[in-house]
Task: structure prediction
Amino acid sequence: MAVGGQVEIIGWLYQYYNTEPKDQAFKKKKYLESDIPAVTQLFTPDWIVKYMVENSLGRYWIDVLQAKGDPRSDKEIANDFSWSYFMPAAKQVDQVVVQSNSSTLSEESIDNVTLIDAAMGSGHILIYAFEVFMQIYTREGYSQRDAAKLIIQNNLYGLDIDTRAFQLAYFSLMMKARATNRRFLTLNIRPNVFDIPESGNLTSSDFQELLTSESEVKSLDSLLDKFRFGNEYGSLIQFEEKVDWSSIERIAHAEIPTGQLTLNSVVLLENQARLREIVEVGKILSEKFTIGAMNPPYMGSGKMDNMLGAYVKKYFPNSKSDLFAVFMERLRAMTVSHGYYAMITQHAWMFLSSFEKLRHVLKEDTLINMAHLGTRAFEEIGGEVVQSTTFVFKHQTVADYIGTYERLVNFDSQQKKETAYLKSVQNETVDYLYRTNQANFAKIPGMPIAYWASESLIHDFEVGTRMDTIVTPKQGLATANNNRFLREWYEVKLKRIKFDATSLKDALVSGKKWFPYNKGGSYRKWYGNYDYVVNWQDDGHEIRNFKGPNGKVRSRPQNTNYYFREAITWSDITSGTFSIRLRKYGSIHDVSGMSAFSKSNTDLLNILGLMNSSVGNYIFKMLNPTIHLQIGNFQAFPVISTTSLQMIDCVKTSVGLSQNDWDSFETSWDFTHHPLLTHIADDNLSHCRSPVG
Result:
């Protein structure tokens, strides 16, 4: 399919249609059910669609051909199909190859291979999958006319909660089939794509005259309850127990006694039609598919309404932090045990502690390939916040499998990433292609997907001393209303500020109202960011008793026994190079002013020097390359060096230079005079002084 083809036009038009409702929804604190389609819809770039389909469906069929005795390598077969985005696997040991080629594959038939997109949007992935299926069918000896019918009938499945998206996907597939079978529109064949229905207020009592047993009542009510909020839960609806579809289908298709139509019989006919839709989608959601491929919706748990938030917490506790991660679990569950699932998601699941449980689930599968995209993978999304990755898992444990990873994070546009990826397909010696055993990830605390970590660095994690055994990282005060309780230090009277408190008792006895507040701040190494003061009068009485309308205390004055102590501190948000500073006695630390403490000044200086080094920055970017550096990432840092007096002296010098620089400007409370005036003789300063008047 050429770039800019008809399916892309449909997709971009659909995204443009959603622009205004998306902008309106983004202003809300919580998204309504009606907002979900707009805020979670993002058109997948064409090359990423090809990557996902060729490396899942294409890879599966290569497995089949090799199981049937094809002697060619995966690269040779992919080239024969002109799958330009297929990444050949790394060379494996013989035992791994045997394990990954299931004997059942030798009996596989193409008309039994199924692919589902559980959030299909306008059908971009399904359309390209149609093309790949068509290639395979014709190689297997089918005519294009017969292949088109079989692909639509047997191979492709799609679901969405947006009716317009469903209509566009349906239309696109019908036109795709019509292009290869001129009579297709007259064959009465319906694509297996659906707008997920909602049962609303339907119950078994609405079908009372068609029910024959209590078991049917129970089974029907259970199914209707699953789809009560179908437009919100979508493909996340799942069935813990086996459903008696035959009895429910009997109810949905039962003939109503003939005779004069009544209002009740008309309503019953309408209810049966709704039930048939639910049955069709329910059967799809209860099945497993050979291949899963999708660009899932993105929505943090903080934006979910109470209903959706409670649902994902109950059924997807390992991935509840974001909807994209929830769909990772769901698509995995919809894939057969030897199949593949491919996705493009935000890369947060690879590193953040909130997704660690999900990573432990995923380690039971085999990460075959990953193109780590980073920022600017989507042309319409700028900035450094949204960072993406696309990947393919085999839903099967293949011990000692060597996965392949393309690190494309340093290429700063969608086009450059695509070009770099294609280059890595042809040339495995490029310096941004990595091959590693995913078992190495478990050797690093938190199990981040740090595929670029060298063997020596992984060894350092195994033998090094954890950071939290040397210093103690702690989060600090959350006021719940910074506008009320914080001020820039020069906004209040100096005599009401105590700059040098050493303990809670010292602060209380002083009778002062304002105390230095470590809020994190901008990038700065060694020393600085002494900007704010906080109202901690009477041991923080006002903050400790700050309550919301419901009467509950909103503030969180945590780890108060560490207040006013000397510390090393860094900012929660670190979009660039990591920076850490010494914080002298006298400050209260904030939840965003991450801090670590020790009774030993030498230990603090030693860690300060290590963290501000290029090695420290490299390891932190490996533990968590998102813009948020969390306490857990700091704790996991391996320390293998011993304290050096020479290094301590260098750190002290660096802190001193940075402090002098900070104090050279009027924004420092320790400012005395501008450094440019230091070497001007006193009698030459008269023109700098205010005239006596």
About this structure: Residues 197 and 230 are 6 Å apart (CA to CA). The chain has 25 helices and 21 strands.
